[in-house]
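My current task is to audit a protein record that another person submitted. Thanks in advance; the entry in question is below:
***
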Amino acid sequence: MNRDLEHYYNVYFDLFRSEGWKQIIEELSENAENVSSIESIKDQNDLYFRKGQLNVLGHLINLESITLSAYEEAMQEDEEDD
């Protein structure tokens, strides 16, 4: 793995270990629960807006596992290239 890519992953891993990251993920998870409630959806546009919100929230909530999977895949590709 080249240095830039290794640095890229290390910056994320440092972030994921921080208390701030844990706090924001907790808050985003709570927000996702509120946004996913269908009782207050007014119309189709509101439904699509909430769908977009949930997509973004889901990506952020799962960013740690997405990043770890990509890192492991990059490491495996490096091992195969050696």
In short: Residues 3-81 form one domain. The chain has one domain: 3-81.
